[in-house]
Amino acid sequence: MKRKFRLKYIFIIVITLFVLWNLCWFTITTIQYHKYVKAVPKNKWGTHAMRKGNYTYSVKKPNYLSFTGNLAVSREDQKDKMEDLIIWPTMTGGYKYGVRLQENGEAYEIYVNEKLEPVDKSDAIAKKVIMENKEDLKTLFSNANKVWDLNE
């Protein structure tokens, strides 16, 4: 009899912890991404994406029980060139950044800081690619800041 009681008790604790974890996840992600999805509402396909001029803005909320989602600004108006700024909001209130640059069949994915400098200071190719595209990346960053107010 005691064994059945213990098993029921353990089962109830496990279920309660799972429900609490789900509630915490839902609350945290809903609060954290509220201002982003408010700025970029769902489109007719049910995704948080919008186009303004030559730029596409999107919000990817975290997957189930994950706390990592992202914001993205893309520019695709040039024939053989594509530029993306990806922003990962952190749980502590800051951001991490990455850029994806594609031109003439070559693609580069580079983590950068808020000054749009490569995180890996020893990567000479990343430095060169960032410097060649610095003005375009500043425009992407400025546009992201206008839409989501990242300095808040």
If you had to describe this structure to a student in words, what would you say it looks like?
- The protein has one domain (36-148).
- 41% of the residues lie in helices and 30% in strands.
- The chain has helices at 2-39, 124-132, 134-148, and strands at 48-52, 55-60, 70-78, 81-89, 95-103, 106-112.
- A hairpin with a 2-residue loop joins β1 and β2.
- It starts with a helix and ends with a helix.
Give the topology, please:
Blueprint: H1 2-39, E1 48-52, E2 55-60, E3 70-78, E4 81-89, E5 95-103, E6 106-112, H2 124-132, H3 134-148
Antiparallel strand pairs: 1-2, 2-3, 3-4, 4-5, 5-6
Distance between the termini: 58 Å
The total tally of domains equals 1
Number of helices, counting only DSSP H or I runs of 4 residues or more? 3
| Overall number of strands | 6
The stretches of 5 or more residues where confidence is low (pLDDT under 50) are none
Physical arrangement of strands within the biggest beta sheet: 1-2-3-4-5-6
Largest sheet: 6 strands, antiparallel
Shape: elongated
Going by helix content, strand content and strand pairing, the class is: alpha+beta
Transmembrane segments: 7-28
Keywords: Membrane, Transmembrane, Transmembrane helix
